[in-house]
Amino acid sequence: MERTFIEEDWMSKPDALVYDNHPETLIDRPLHYCPGCHHGVAHKEIMHVVEELGIQSEVIGVAPVGCSVFAYHYMNVDMQEAAHGRACAVATGIKRVRPDKTVFTYQGDGDLAAIGTAETLHAVNRGENILIIFINNAIYGMTGGQMAPTTLEGMQTSTTPYGRNIKDIGYPLKMTDLVAHLPGAYYVTRQSVHTPNAVRKFKKALKKAFEYLKDERGTCFVEIVSNCPSGWKMTPVESVSYIEEKMLPEFPVGDLKTPEK
Amino acid sequence: MSEGNGKDVRLMKGNEAFAEAAIRAGMDAYFGYPITPQSEALEYLTREIPKRQGVVVQAESEVAAINMIYGAAGAGARVMTSSSSPGVSLMQEGISYIASAELPCLLVNINRGGPGLGTIQPSQGDYFQSTRGGGHGDYRTPVLAPATVQEMVDFVFEGFRIAEEYRTPTLILADGALGQMMERVELPPEGSLPHEIPSWATTGKTPDRESNVITSLFIEPEKMEKVNEKLQEKYRSMEKEITFEAENVEDADIVVVAYGLSSRISQKAMHMAREKGIRVGSFRPKTLYPFPYEALGKLAETAKSFLVVEMNAGQMVEDVKLAVNGKRPVGFKGRMGGMIPDPDEILAAIENIDN
Ligand SMILES: Cc1ncc(C[n+]2csc(CCOP(=O)(O)OP(=O)(O)O)c2C)c(N)n1
Question: S-S: B309 plus which of A52, A159, B227, B258, CB 3.0-4.6 Å?
Fold first, then answer.
């Protein structure tokens, strides 16, 4: 098993740290997330971008039920908690009555791609001028590690104890690919945050997404291929390898739709 | 349009009348999904709002619609949705969230016959769902029950006022007949119900304040209990909103209790009974929650018995029994599944009462 990023020993190099600088837009309090979970990294980068773009007073976030339902404990912007699966409908309601604001959702795979599939597809199909951030950890983190629509073939979860059997339960659902086909989508990209380099790329893509929103030409959609050490029953380091070796081949990173294309 | 006295008087269908009233009440946004017998509201608003002011969105489902309501209400807008029974069932999770997050909004249920897909004919079968909260958890919503198309209009203004004053989802419960029938209505002028964006709304965090958060999540049970206590306190304080209409009750031996359409038919039966020399009065709650327990309880001191008339299997009758508290017999006459009682059968039920 090759682990180039470990061999480089990037963790010990202070200049490569992605967690040392603290944006004003992030509330300084201990995270409730499990050790090694990528939610924290994603939160921080989103708030970095909000700060760098100077849009804190314009932003309204929506965090639905899932591990990140407490996002408003950390993100220092106006936020609404949403029912499981309904973030895109809630964001639609906000954006329609506050069209001059920047509205984003932050949704897990269970939320966005199972119970909230209809809300997600229809919001994008209406071309709602919102940013959908889709954190795909291939599992239901909050409820204790059950199968998600994005769970990989053969992957063990608490409800696929013998591994996900495609014949029984179908395929990992690629919502980002689906969404990219909709004319209402303006910018669609898939990123990850499992290495410093990936974090930098994610941040760049996210910044573009926020900026594209200003064009008012449709929905921006950013998937983050993420981990769940607790649910996957792995150490954080193992989970990073799993992303590299298993998740990324199934969910390859890169832009799926850009305004130019 | 006008009767020449400066008043805006029209002949309107209930569904269109409450939609027009909402525009005049300064509604910022409407989110809805078609369902008979209330689709005219969404149709009317998609026709009128683009010419006037506000937002209207045909959602992909009632689930989406109620969550759009949650979002827009959380952002401080004056919002309304409407539906009919099966659609209102789908909204219940959202209504519970809205009640817990203490967001104001107006919901209109043009009740049709059920259970299940049921029928599109008028019913009062959703009384329990409306007055007992309807979704999960300990919450209630104020419920206004119009009996005329004019009240469909008036209660929209009243509904928005109550919703905003108490920060609560507020319901108008009318049956399919009230949605479909045409009557003379006098429409209030636009702008008569002022609205400011509340300070708690998510409108973007400015440097002069902390971030605003709309949530129904209180993970520590101690906190959750406090939230519940606050909600219950709020519901108790709503008692001053109780309204009802009592007619001929002073000398009545029998008081017929009914709301909405069945109250109109009951009133007709009351007059028929009076002509026959039977002393009948009528009592019509206009607020189903909070319910006029006290006023009815007082009537139990003078009347000999009560007859509750509903277009269901007997739901409000339980509240009337609570109000009367065993002091007098409480009878029930109901039709179900979209059937409307006629005055003769109510009269027969009155005559059957052995005082
Ligand atoms: C209507 C409803 N059904 C089920 C749940 C329970 N539930 C809470 S979070 C969740 C899944 C979360 O998974 P995901 O959206 O992938 O986010 P994660 O926790 O993995 O970040 C479920 C099933 C709920 N809260 N509401």
Answer: B258
Are the beta carbons of A103 and A94 closer than 8 angstroms? yes
Interface confidence, given as ipTM, is 0.96
For each of the domains in chain B, give its residue range(s) and CATH number, in order of start: 8-240 (3.40.50.970), 243-351 (3.40.50.920)
> Would you say B321 and B329 are in contact if contact means Cβ atoms under 8 Å apart?
no
Residue whose C-alpha is closest to residue B93's, from B124, B119, B62, B116: B62
Could you tell me if the CB of A137 is within 6 A of ligand 1?
yes
Size of interface A-B (CB pairs under 8 A): 129
Residue A72, helix vs strand vs coil? helix
Cβ(A149)–Cβ(A160) below 8 Å: no
Q: How far is A186 from chain B (nearest CA, A)?
A: 21
CA distance B131 to B134: 7
pTM greater than the 0.90 cutoff: yes
Would you list the domain boundaries of chain A?
Answer: 30-257
CA angle B175, B177, B182 (to 5 degrees): 130
User: Model confidence at A104, in pLDDT bands (50, 70, 90)?
Assistant: very high
- Residue B293: which H helix or E strand, with range? helix B293-299
Q: CA-to-CA distance for B248 and B185, rounded, in angstroms? A: 26
Measured in degrees and rounded to the nearest 5, phi and psi for residue B142 equal -60, 140
Q: Residue A142: which residues within 8 A CB-CB, separation 6 or more?
A: A65, A66, A67, A69, A108
Give the C-alpha separation, A186 to A179, whole Å.
10
Dihedral (Cα; A70, A75, A81, A86), 10-degree rounding: -110
CATH 1.20.120.350 applies to domain A30-257: no
Task: Supply A247's token pair.
Answer: 């998740």
Atom of ligand 1 nearest to the CA of A109: 16
- Listed in sequence order, the residues at least 6 apart from B263 whose beta carbon sits closer than 8 Å to its beta carbon are B147, B282, B284, B309
The reply to whether residue A89 touches residue B75, judged by beta carbons under 8 angstroms, is no
Contact at 8 Å (CB) between B172 and B208? no
For residue B111, the cross-strand partners are: B175
